[in-house]
Design brief:
Layout: H1 23-33, H2 36-52, H3 57-69, H4 83-95, H5 97-111, H6 115-124, H7 127-140, H8 147-154, H9 159-165, H10 168-173, H11 176-189, H12 199-203, H13 207-222, H14 229-238, E1 241-243, E2 249-251, E3 283-284
Antiparallel strand pairs: 1-2, 2-3
Helix pairs in contact: 1-5, 2-4, 2-5, 4-5, 5-7, 6-7, 7-9, 8-9, 13-14
Length: about 290
Amino acid sequence: MTASNPAAGTTPPPAPAAPDESAADLRARLDAELAAPAREWLDRALALAEDAAGPAPEADATAAAATAHRGGEAGPAPRRMPAWELRFAEAGRRCGPEHADAARVLLLSAARPAPGTVARLYGQGSAAERRAVLAALPYLTGGPEALPLVEDALRTNDTRLVAAAVGPYAAAHLDAHAWRHAVLKCLFTGVPVAAVAALAERAGGDGELARMLGDYAEERRAAGRAVPADLFEVLRLTGGLTGGPAGTATAQHPAAPGPPPAREAAPAAPPPADQASPGTPTALKAPSTGEES
């Protein structure tokens, strides 16, 4: 488990993790968008989840094991899967795939399952169910105990899982090293960096992230591949890219590569005042905004 460690990065992560939308707002939105049969199904499913909230099966199992160890009566028989978990699995069929994530998040928020149940639902779930578990983490726990789920999702190449993994929970709990690699994972897989929660707060002033971005950009250019436009956005947030003439920017980190030779303009003599002088880092051209004169 990789807990957050402010000393490992330039700035401490934000805390606590907070969902982008409250459970009440999420419910109101679903009520407005779902057809009547789906709303009725969700009402019944949430009632089952709320009834199940309380002592978790894991706690019951632990108590039973302790009783058996002391020589007491055998513990209770293994519990059947709670009804709300069955509803969790069928949410896509009942609410439609476009609303399934939100319905599952509401079910998890209502049931307040123990960490072991959350991990089981993730580990045994479909990709859609795993995505919902990740999205629900800010509603469920304030601690880092669910970080293994985030780390598992970041090891996949499923872009929807990766996008769900870099939400508010990851922003609050991933340490600086793991968080930087999560940002790079988004760039590798094409996940928009807009999906990264608290991007500006955590990237601000992060020189190590700027170095990693510069290395990645140079690798792409050396392979003759385009540098993702999102890379320049993150680099600006780190403070490693400052505005220059229209369509250009200057990299402040020495590792940031210059543009491909074919795109380099011949240097003017004397150089303009806003252009890097010899001995400053190489110029890094950002994507054109289309507003050049």
